[in-house]
Known about the structure:
The structure holds 2 protein chains of 2 kinds. Chain A has helices at residues 9-25, 45-54, 68-79, 154-162; strands at residues 31-32, 61-64, 83-84, 92-95, 118-122, 125-135, 143-148, 170-175, 178-182, 187-188. Chain A is of the alpha/beta class. In chain A, the strands form 2 sheets. A 7-stranded mixed β-sheet of chain A has the order 1-9-8-5-4-2-3. Chain A starts with 8 loop residues before the first helix and ends with a strand. Chain B is an alpha/beta fold. Chain B has helices at residues 12-27, 48-57, 75-88, 136-144, 149-162, 191-194, 267-275; strands at residues 33-34, 63-68, 91-92, 101-105, 118-122, 173-175, 179-181, 200-205, 210-214, 220-222, 249-253, 260-264. In chain B, the strands form 3 sheets. Chain B has a 7-stranded mixed β-sheet. In chain B, strands 7-6-10 form a 3-stranded antiparallel β-sheet. The chains are: A alpha/beta, B alpha/beta. At the A-B interface, helix 1 of A face helix 1, strand 1 and helix 4 of B.
Amino acid sequence: MxxxxxxxKTFESQEAFHLILQATANPGKKVxxxxxxxxxxxxxxxxxNIIFTLLDxxxxxxxxxxxxxxxxxxxKLHTGSPITKNKVESDFAIVTHGxxxxxxxxxxxxxxxxxxxxxxxxxxxxxxxxxxVLSGPGIKNSNQITLRGIPHNFKEKINSNSSKFPRxxxxxxxxxxxxxxxxxxxxIIN
Amino acid sequence: MIDGxxxxxxxxxxxxxxxxxxxxxxxxxxxxxxxGGREMPLAYGWGTGGIQVTASIIGINDTLKVIDQGADxxxxxxxxxxxxxxxxxxxxxxxxxxxxxxxxxxxxPEKKLSENQILVYQVPQPEPLRRLEPKEQxxxxxxxxxxxxLMHVKLYEEISHxxxxxxxxxxxxxxxxxxxxxxxxxxKFDNPKMDFMxxxxxxxxxxxxRIYAIPPYTSxxxxxxxxxxxxxxxxxxxxxxxxxxxSYLDExxxxxxxxxxxxxxxxxxxxxxxxx
Lengths: 190, 276
């Protein structure tokens, strides 16, 4: 690759951001990235779009993956983000393998809850698997999603995260070219 | 588009920083997120915060509407629209329904907004508690510990002095049953429109360097007391132009004798109402 990040940074990142914004304002809504021009074996297309759109020199990144070195080099090359081994220090976390608990990440401060980690979790499927019914700001009544390859006790973890509001982590679930955003306000009611 | 400027004026690193802030703001409805506000080519107080938010979300396919006190044709609205035409070459409109992004100074359009629209507010003072507590460190704590007695005492005192809450604009609201939020100096007439609004609401305060947000379908309650429920303004008059009796009316003095007329503050609503 001759360039780093998006080739046409201005427009490609605006398009991607528009989708991330839609997903976050409407939790549970599945959005699809149309930009398939950038890929990395161990990262999904949607993860790459998020990385290129939101990460830069100002964001500390934590990586949990079987391919940690490859992903770490990819992120360093394309975004310049410092990689950290310390979950609490991370602004963004990228999780491609293994279980995780949200507690060990940064859930912000009482006075600055925005200083918390945003966790990008790569999952296996958004069309089959376990059903979850979501409710919270951004959702008209309730919203059902179907997920596979998520952390153990997902429901309990999400609900204990949202019970800490305004503190808590925010979550992006990514699968192939799709994204579902789960802000800390969201509860799984079923 | 003029040469020598990036699309939407801001550089990409700044947009990225503002975009991250907007996302966090949506995740914590009503919480004021600090951001590295930039100097814009217009004075503070003319919408620098709103412009930075709009510049960070706008794309080539967006249609922008800008209103100032409900009007599409006032100096501030026209200048901001011209600014974005120059730096983005995007479509602008006066039609509320056709706009994908509406930047507003102190009104919410009368027409109900839809899910694929974004309302961007220009905010002079994002902190609803500032007049009660001047120190930022203190108001941060008050928000953190949900210690809102000060605000309720203020409203109570207004009722005990004047018989009712006298605040008619920037009337404080509670977002998602948690943060007390300043709706920017919109008339309290507009407060009920914010509750479970279908459009995403973003607030940008340039001088104070704060961004906050209210996601769609989020509870927004105006503060009140059981025995003194919140009420919006009403008029005995109708709009002199379109005859509307349910929109927000501006009082216009028309001659030296002090005679006056009432007209809709929302010019696009008035125009459409006149046609039908």
